[in-house]
Design brief:
Layout: H1 7-34, E1 40-41, E2 51-53, E3 58-63, H2 81-104, E4 108-113, H3 114-119, H4 121-133
Parallel strand pairs: 3-4
Antiparallel strand pairs: 1-2, 2-3
The chain binds zinc ion.
Zinc ion is lined by residues 65, 70, 72-73, 113, 115.
Length: 135
């Protein structure tokens, strides 16, 4: 098969994809850090939360609008619709199981949408720090 992209183009393309995946998480992480909140990243806890506040027992997930089927922004791709339906459906199901499982273990679980990080970072960090002060 012929490769239509030069290796440089492909590299740039891959970098963009990776950047888009992690950007909201990094933005939120920096905002929390600026507020003086200290957390652990990707700790070995059920579901691998994006941030973990161990002492307060709060787990935070940043959910991508596409991968976790945000009601406002998700739309099923037209190609391979059946495949995507199944894949995203599995993600959403797993999210529910993880949230339930962590709560059962005494964690408070905060799930935020990627689009909230983009549009309301201030409100989001305020909400998280409020949750942390509760205990
Ligand atoms: Zn969204």
């Amino acid at each position: 098969m012929t490769d239509v992209m030069t290796s440089q183009q492909r590299r740039r393309c891959m970098a963009n994809i990776r950047g888009r995946d992690t950007k909201p998480e990094v933005r939120l992480r920096k905002a929390l850090w600026r507020r003086g909140l200290r957390y652990r990243l990707h700790a070995k806890v059920m579901g691998r939360p994006d941030f973990l506040f161990v002492k307060q027992k709060v787990a935070v997930f940043v959910d991508g609008c596409f991968w976790h089927r945000c009601k406002r922004h998700f739309s099923l791709p037209k190609t391979n619709a059946v495949f995507w339906e199944g894949k995203i459906g599995k993600n959403v199901h797993r999210d529910k199981m993880v949230t339930r499982g962590l709560r059962r273990l005494g964690w408070r679980v905060i799930r935020v949408w990627e689009h909230e990080v983009e549009s309301n970072l201030k409100g989001l960090t305020a909400r998280i720090s409020r949750q942390l002060r509760k205990r």
